[in-house]
Write a structure and sequence with these properties.
Layout lengths: L13 H28 L14 H11 L3 H24 L4 H41 L4
Length: about 140
């Protein structure tokens, strides 16, 4: 009688865990930068503006990333390009200090994209390796 199949890998590899923390950290950085930029550091209008609401869509993927949902990592790699585009436009067209903040936004967007893309890649690799190991263990000896 064969033993039941062992569960797939429960503990993520260190690279997967690192990319998850990097994704969450860069997303939090984008949220904090957007709020500080539009309310305090270089607002469009003195005293802040409603442009600070641009960070609201970033709060939705934060929940999914904190819960380690693969689907969220996938779609945040698409959402981040909107903020990257804003950063490129404002880095070129705004005056200091706003253009420097836009450059920071660009860097955080690239970091978020790369971290999420690598998280997806390495997590699938780990799942594939765990499934192969499980299949090899379940194979009857001949």
């Amino acid at each position: 009688m064969n033993a039941p199949n062992p569960p797939l890998q429960n503990q993520p590899s260190s690279s997967v865990a690192f990319t998850r923390y990097l994704s969450v950290g860069s997303l939090l950085g984008l949220i904090l930068l957007g709020l500080a930029w539009e309310l305090v550091l270089a607002p469009v209008r003195p005293g802040g503006s409603l442009l600070a609401l641009k960070v609201l869509p970033l709060c939705f993927p934060l929940i999914g990333l904190l819960k380690n949902r693969m689907y969220t990592h996938r779609w945040v790699t698409l959402l981040v390009w909107l903020y990257f585009t804003e950063g490129v436009v404002r880095a070129y067209s705004d005056k200091p200090p706003s253009n420097y903040l836009a450059m920071v936004e660009i860097a955080l967007c690239l970091l978020l994209f790369l971290a999420s893309a690598m998280h997806i890649r390495w997590r699938f690799r780990d799942l594939k390796n765990a499934a192969l190991a499980s299949a090899a263990d379940a194979k009857p000896a001949q």
